[in-house]
């Protein structure tokens, strides 16, 4: 009898719940075989067989990310941890979308499917705020697209605002019909004529305004006023002639816009960084603002001089940025608060490399690392140990955190430099 109990314990350890053999058998029921699997297919299979694999009912993604059984499966399929977590996140989002719709998104989407400019700017802003007020990442995504239309209205681009709102209406209808949120709204930003293509505008002095957009090698013009219409031009010469024929005085509009942009690009490039050379708007800046993301004051609206701005966090309608001195590539210790409507003055940039080691103490480093891991969608419990190591800090993480580039990005997000990395069953990195 004693031998029997010992054998049973042995069997459970090898074949039972929590073992790799048991996990692979469960996944086989989901038609997942062999040594290789697509991340999304694997994530869906694990979600379907979660209780059979782990012995526990699924509650949240944090629970999943800390399960050693899941880590063994990821290791078995030689899959990068962040790649799997991205796939898992997508699977979970899709599985709970109906539940989230029922909790608050659905009535707002119904309103969003029919709302127009005639409803008024206040009503549009109110709807955007209601989306933002829901503690749900879907809602934030949807609100960002509505904000694009609002911004176009505020800037006087009536024709483009109408097109954007119609796209927004359709995307809301598609989600209500069962389409996944990300898929439904992915084309809202891909209109042929939007603020990213916008190069300038001009007025005829009689109440009509012409918005000029780049279209391939030519142009597309949207005229709004007492009469709305549009026209195309195949080159600069034809554009200027058609504008003149329609009583718009714009003989220098192309030269002025191109010169301003080029001067600004040259200015920042001399400082060693490379701003995005495509126009961007407030809604887009809000959408891409993540911890560790750098921007420049493209329109020199804040009179800050040679600085870059690193996004820190958003508090209600205010975005907070750390100010980086571009001449020294060091933090100034100062911050800039940017209102929602002012984000359009910024532009994304590349090439900002801080010339400094981490300045915080051990407790601050541990906190910053946990926040950085959480911000990429992985539970901070993936961090097994943080300790002081000489002048720097040693971090130990789960086996699935095996990509050195991911570790570098984690450190870059809060000003710590990865100087050593050793992958293994426990990954070890040293930061300064």
Describe the structure.
With 432 residues, the chain is of the alpha+beta class. The chain folds into five domains: 2-79, no CATH class; 89-190, no CATH class; 198-251; 259-350, SH3 type barrels; 362-431. Helix content is 46%, strand content 20%. The protein is built from 16 helices and 14 strands. The protein has helices at 2-15, 20-28, 39-48, 50-54, 61-65, 68-76, 81-112, 121-133, 137-154, 158-176, 181-185, 236-245, 253-270, 282-288, 362-375, 404-412; strands at 198-203, 209-215, 218-224, 229-233, 274-275, 294-297, 307-315, 318-325, 330-339, 346-350, 383-389, 392-397, 418-422, 427-431. The strands form three sheets. The chain has a six-stranded antiparallel sheet with strand order 5-10-6-7-8-9. The protein starts with a helix and ends with a strand. The relative contact order is 0.07. Residues 1-13 and 189-194 have low confidence and may be disordered.
């Amino acid at each position: 009898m004693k031998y029997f109990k010992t054998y049973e314990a042995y069997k459970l350890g090898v074949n039972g719940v929590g073992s790799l053999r048991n996990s692979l058998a469960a996944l086989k029921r989901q038609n997942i075989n062999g040594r290789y699997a697509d991340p999304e297919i694997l994530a869906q299979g694990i979600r379907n067989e979660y209780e059979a694999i782990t012995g526990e009912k699924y509650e949240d993604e944090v629970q999943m990310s800390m399960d050693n059984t899941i880590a063994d499966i990821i290791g078995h399929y030689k899959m990068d941890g962040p790649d799997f977590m991205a796939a898992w996140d997508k699977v979970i989002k899709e599985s709970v979308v109906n539940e989230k719709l029922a909790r608050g998104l659905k009535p707002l989407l119904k309103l969003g499917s029919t709302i127009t400019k005639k409803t008024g700017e206040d009503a549009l802003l109110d709807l955007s705020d209601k989306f933002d007020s829901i503690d749900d990442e879907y809602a934030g995504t949807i609100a960002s697209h509505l904000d694009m239309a609002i911004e176009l209205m505020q800037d006087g681009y009536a024709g483009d605002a109408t097109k954007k709102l119609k796209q927004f209406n359709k995307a809301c209808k598609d989600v209500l019909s069962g389409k996944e949120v990300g898929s439904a709204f992915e084309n809202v930003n891909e209109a042929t004529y939007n603020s990213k293509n916008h190069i300038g505008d001009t007025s005829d002095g009689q109440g009509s305004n012409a918005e000029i957009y780049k279209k391939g090698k030519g142009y597309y013009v949207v005229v709004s006023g007492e009469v709305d219409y549009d026209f195309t031009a195949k080159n600069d010469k034809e554009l200027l002639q058609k504008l003149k024929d329609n009583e718009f005085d714009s003989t220098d509009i192309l030269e002025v816009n191109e010169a301003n942009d080029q001067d600004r690009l040259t200015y920042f490039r001399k400082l060693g960084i490379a701003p995005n050379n495509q126009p961007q708007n407030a809604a887009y800046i809000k959408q891409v603002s993540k911890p560790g993301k750098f921007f420049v004051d493209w329109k020199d609206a804040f009179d800050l001089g040679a600085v870059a701005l690193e996004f820190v966090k958003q508090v209600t309608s205010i975005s907070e940025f750390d100010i980086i001195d571009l001449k020294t590539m060091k933090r100034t210790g100062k911050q800039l608060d940017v209102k929602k409507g002012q984000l359009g003055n910024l532009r994304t940039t590349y090439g900002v490399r801080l010339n400094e080691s981490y300045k915080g103490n051990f407790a601050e480093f541990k906190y910053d690392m946990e926040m950085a891991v959480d911000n990429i969608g992985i539970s901070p419990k993936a961090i097994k140990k943080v300790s002081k190591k000489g002048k720097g800090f040693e971090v130990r993480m789960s086996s699935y955190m095996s990509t050195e580039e991911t570790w570098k990005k984690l450190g870059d997000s809060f000003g710590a430099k990865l100087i050593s990395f050793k992958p293994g069953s426990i990954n070890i990195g040293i930061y300064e």
